[in-house]
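Sample entry (373 residues):
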Amino acid sequence: MDRFVLFTTLSLIGGMSFAVSTALAGSGSCSLGPGDHTSQTLSSGGLERVYDVYVPPGCDPEQPFAMVLDFHGGLSTRAVHRLISDFRGKAQEHGFVLVQPEGTGDDPGDAVGVTNSWNVGYEFLGPKFDYHDDVAFVRELVARVGEQLPIDPQRIYATGHSMGGGMAHLLACRAADLFRAVAPVAFWLQAPEVVACDPSRPIPVRIYHAFYDGVVCYDESLPHLIFGDVDCPAWEPHRRSAPDGFARWRDIDGCTGTPTTLILPVFFSRFDEFTSCRSGARVGLWSLTTNYNPQEPCPFNPFVTCPGLSDHNPYTNLNQVDIEEDAWQFFVSVPEPRRTTLALAALIALATTRAARRRWPCASASRQLAPRA
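Predicted structure, serialized as tokens:
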């Protein structure tokens, strides 16, 4: 009885794991060659969506790639994003597939335009654009790339800057079944009344935010150790803080204890991380010092100052923390769930056996004492 239940349970769960692991590999072909594939298109939600893909050399159906999705910020494009984020260089260095999608406009008739952004759940420079289901688009996009390349479904990650960081947060909340870990940059996890966050499993999260961000404020109540205070933009409709998001992810992932803390010398950038979380998840926050300029001119009007505008780009920080490299090392440090599948199956099998024994305590004895025919 015990061996039969154990064998059956392991076989079923092992089969399901194999099915999930091979689903994204498609036919196992390498239909996209090495290099950059720009302006790829995908029809989603009635719109023609655009994205770029970088494929490293050495495609082998027996050795599926890891994949990172990197989202640009609001009022930006994937081309502009590549000027501030070097994930393209990291993809080439470390040999993973990089996908950089294009957002859409707030106006339904403006597929890609000056209001180019992502539907992260709140109103942004116009009416709420819930007609663009960007989570559904991302799922379709991952499936499309998985048809063209062998992708390891256990190693799919998301990152992004500003509102693109908001997309990384949102995908952690609503697509934890698809993404193994996320690394949002310069955006908070929004308030529960704005975006409900109930991931299907605890998901590792590492956040990067500049202390003196003048666009998406780090924390308006916390003056910087060096530069003093900064005024947050009044137009932020659902203002939150990086520490608030850090604490909320701590609660969502069921972290306990106190975070470990590292404070870097001279410019006081710091890293806090909860490591005792459910299912091996970790939640970290890099708080970065940038070169704040209170007299920084605004690009759209040089006679008006935009203090903290450049600080919205923490990829360039005074402690020279390499965000892209740190995020990639964080991604690859997350253990794959396959390692716990058999242990979980064994526990289920034992629980099933014990329940059967409690319900039919004489079943085994009856079979042993039954007379031979």
